[in-house]
Amino acid sequence: MEDLGFNSFCKTKESRMPVYDNNQGISRFPEFLKSECKSNLLLGSEKLRWLTPKAFLELDNMLLSINSNRVGLVKLVVGNTSAGYYKELENCDTYIDLRYIPELSCIRRDPVGIEIGAAVTISKAICALREGAIVYKKIAAHMEKIGTKFVQNTGSIGGNLVMAQREHFPSDIATILLGAGAFVNIRSGTAYETVSLEEFLERPHLDSKSVLSSVKIPLWELDRKLLFETYRAAPRAHGNALAYVNAAFLAELSSCGSSGGAVLNKCLLAFGAYGKKHAIRAREVEKLLTGRVLTARVLYEAINLVKATVVPEEGTGSEAYRSSVAVGFLFEFLSPLADATIGISRCTLSSKDAEENYEEGGHVKCPRMLSSSRQVFQLHIDYRPVGEPIVTSGAALQASGEAVYADDIPSPENCLHGSFVYSTKPLARVRGIQVNPKSQSNWISGLINYKDIPKGGKNVGSMTIFGSEPLFADDFTQCAGDRLAFLVAGTQKEADVASRLAIVNYDLENLEAPILTVEDAVARSSFFQVPPFLYPKEVGDFSKGMAEADHQIFSAEVKIDSQYYFYMESQTALAVPDEDNCMVVYSSSQCPEYVHATIAQCIGVPEHNVRVITRRVGGGFGGKAIKSMPVATACALAAHVLRQPVRIYVNRKTDMIMAGGRHPMKITYSVGFKSTGKITALKLDILVDAGIYTDISPVIPSNFMAVLRKYDWGALSFDIKVCKTNTVSRSAMRGPGEVQGSYVAEAIIENIASTLSVNADCVRKINLHTHDSLMLFHPDSSGEVPEYTLSLIWEKLAQSSEYSQRREMVSEFNKCNVWKKRGLSCVPIVHELIVRPAPGRVSILRDGSIVVEVGGIELGQGLWTKVKQMTAFALGLIKCDALEVDLLEKVRIIQADTLSLIQGGFTAGSTTSESSCEAVRLCCEILVERLRPLKEKLKTEMGSVQWEMLIQQAHMQVVNLSTSSYSGPDFSSNRYLTYGAAVSEVEVNLLTGGTTILRSDILYDCGRSLNPAVDLGQIEGAYVQGIGYFMLEEYTRNSDGLVTSDGTWTYKIPTVDTIPKQFNVEILSSGNHKNRVLSSKACGEPPLLLASSVHCATRAAVRAAREQLQSWGYHDEYGPTFNLEVPAVMPTVKEQCGLDNVETYMKWKMSTHRVEQ
Ligand SMILES: Cc1cc2nc3c(=O)[nH]c(=O)nc-3n(C[C@H](O)[C@H](O)[C@H](O)COP(=O)(O)OP(=O)(O)OC[C@H]3O[C@@H](n4cnc5c(N)ncnc54)[C@H](O)[C@@H]3O)c2cc1C
């Protein structure tokens, strides 16, 4: 960093990265970086060996020389991508790279098939296969869905199959090759053996001295009576997610002369990844089908047998779902054949069918990802350059990787690295922590715990206005994920390995049972206090409202779970001890001021001895607020104790375990409403799971209720308890409490609509506020009548999204399609925002360039960009010649430094950009006032005044060109409302529970946007993060409360294939807002809430599926009122559509004699 005088790219004055030019086609690797690449492989330690045999003989000798006690330490590798999956099990010191043995990298074709060397990468195999017969093309198309392009380019076919055989990896390749009847060649010493893939998978694990040399896929006759398909149900269809279940089916068919039906002469049915050791052939089902005419009855028998065959092992998760999807796959494959009205030829492989999947040149057609988008905004030029869609400040540096984040700062000499040892038990006595003998003792420099807090210091890891949280557990751990100690070692890897291997000695004797649920907390009265000024106020008389209702629902329940922040940059800090008991800490934090105070308290020094610097943060979403404090404090404490610099980059697993995330909740409500859908009264009992420490949890009730008030509920009554449980404390996450409040409002509306059997959007519309009811529900923030834009938004969006026409189209689609249903939903938001005080300083240097400091942190939300624009606008009011555009180029925003600019506060709640802008505007106003007399004088003397000349003269005439300010809106105008709505259309696959967001249209009120390009990015980004919450991200825990979704393998955030296929965003420019900063309104968090429209649209589609299910009979329990959990992942959706919907359909068809039996 500049302050230390070094920087990862400090050798150059400016970026040497070539500027991206999209007219030049593909960008090449920069020449200057090539010379910096080391020619030798970097293994990270001299103790590791990397061997590269060039022939089998050389390999044999290497394998022979491995003595038996070193077997686990030697690993054959091709791409070594398995290290990503089995990262915690790896402990090798010798790697034998198979890529240079020619026989392993060959692809051979002969008249009976194609043989692919085991070291051939998945990409190369895809290229070879798509040039072959149609079965090969289909295999290639399936392989395109494996991992990412990087994994395909690096990982090998053989590596994948060995992982499946030896490590029970849920492979796609094993399943699809099993379905295609493949064989493998194994080389043990000099002997070769060919066995079927099925036998290979069933054998004992391939021993460490045998090598898989190739796989052979037979060439299936290319006549028109062959059917081959592969299937895959995964959380993200094309985006790096392992399958819940996959399958490949091959059938040879003939036609039954008398009936015209299809006879299966031969079939191969392979299922995999469903929670058994390896992929299997469903032999019994194959036997049942072979030689039989495929009637509905036979198909029914077959699917029942599949259900009994594809049974995951206990503990797999979603077991019933996986079996049910396996049934769906076979049904999809065979049902067209069982329907006598469809001839075989239409179902078997013709080259045309397969060709349709390919583009010119044989490339598999890309699945439709984001197909179109529209971004609409109105340009305002009154405050130029404020209001212009200027490119985000530092975007090029970020895109080229040159932007310096805390972890990019090169380590100072003697720098040590830390890693947290956390508890895996919820409530236990900690008898001791032992370093595992497997981690080399010379790695470890210290194991810091609460006993190391210096005299005068305090065991404090974070602070808020509600209290503090200890840095380390004392003799008792309070939750799984609690920080027990900080292990310090020479490198980050050594610290991570040693902390993972550390052995914690727990003692549970005579301890009460932990409180792990909100129900437990209620039973044991374990609550946090909510200060009265934060407890929300009720509206009207609930009993009276209920008495006016035509219908009443009592004690309905909604449960909502947590969400992890998933910032790209994990928590990180570097602490450097300085002279005179001082400490400089670089922290990736949303609130360096509080990090600063916490460190000072912990190590027992005055605050002026500590300096915290934050340049930028690689994503925060609230997780870098309170939760960044213990990370930096632990480094500072270790640095203080060891008198050496200490840093940490918290690994993803530890971060996910300790992060806490969004607050889970349980809500029980009673609601009364008229037959028209007009709501008359609502009462809620809300239990918030806050975890073990207060954090910011006391604000959750007011946030929740503020957003729930988006509708006119008639009378509103509630009881909210913030429960203290033995789980990691929850913290603020983008829209904290607000996302839950908004969703619960929608869940209630959906329930009312289902009860009345009407469209939920009509119930929404009828309950939108008038300005009068808005004033009742939001007395402190409702604003003037013209500021209430929600009705306008609702109407405008209905038009731009073609809502009415699409409703009809959706209903038509649902009539025509049995296994796919669509839903459409429009959801509004009314979001209250609070503007907090913020400091700023503006200084004009001798050459006219300007340096700006603000309390707000750049988190990727574009704060710096807006501040730059504001500085240029506000200083431009001096009106020198040709100024505004030039001035923008002259402004640099510098990092937050807690000793340079105090009272930075929290970068949170969406409004920090505007309050930082306001602080800067105030500074500029002062500077302009100071400069004006001089400027007028020069103007009179010279006719025209250039900025540079004015500043030079000002310096000479001793004008003070630096000033600071602290913007603090008064309490009467620091709250305001903003509005928006989104219409989403979702398609649900009733066989897999998979959802596709076909289209989302958003209309959001930004006031007068300070920068529409930045705001559009914020709106789209927040919305997509909301899609993750509502549809994908399962933040699961075990029975001790320990997080089990602790990595990207299990926690699935949205990717390009999960976002809406059509994504239209419009910023409503709602005119003048006199109390807002240049009439602007915030947009960092509220649009996240709009993503519940996707959930509601999914629910509408599921409702259509259930209506259909009911029409088939047998399913009274699938009524119109149901609860679709959040997130609506595939198993959840499928469960609500009927796990046995296929069987029900078949029974119905057979009973109504619509098909031949
Ligand atoms: C992010 C990610 C996503 C993925 N997603 C999917 C997916 O969706 N579907 C899927 O099927 N797979 C998936 N994979 C698995 C991927 O296909 C495999 O990791 C890859 O194919 C392994 O090849 P490799 O060359 O890297 O094997 P390596 O890691 O080099 O080796 C894997 C194992 O096989 C052994 N081995 C390798 N070659 C031989 C040989 N010839 N003889 C004997 N032993 C050998 C090694 O000793 C090691 O134990 C994913 C992997 C990653 C990292």
TrEMBL record:
It comes from Linum tenue. Binds 1 Mo-molybdopterin (Mo-MPT) cofactor per subunit. GO terms for molecular function: FAD binding; indole-3-acetaldehyde oxidase activity; iron ion binding. Coiled coil: none annotated. Belongs to the xanthine dehydrogenase family. Transmembrane segments: none annotated. This is indole-3-acetaldehyde oxidase. FAD binds at residues 156-160, 172, 212, 232. The lineage of its organism: Eukaryota, Viridiplantae, Streptophyta, Embryophyta, Tracheophyta. Residues 43-222 form the FAD-binding PCMH-type domain. Mo-molybdopterin binds at residues 590, 621, 734, 909. It holds the Pfam family MoCoBD_1. The active site is at 1085 (proton acceptor). Keywords: FAD, Flavoprotein, Metal-binding, Molybdenum, Oxidoreductase. It is an enzyme of class 1 (oxidoreductase). Its EC number is 1.2.3.7. Its cofactor is FAD; Mo-molybdopterin. InterPro entries: Ald_Oxase/Xan_DH_a/b (IPR000674), Ald_Oxase/Xan_DH_a/b_sf (IPR036856), Ald_Oxase/xanthine_DH-like (IPR016208), AldOxase/xan_DH_MoCoBD1 (IPR008274), AldOxase/xan_DH_MoCoBD2 (IPR046867), AldOxase/xan_DH_Mopterin-bd_sf (IPR037165), CO_DH_flav_C (IPR005107), CO_DH_flav_C_dom_sf (IPR036683).
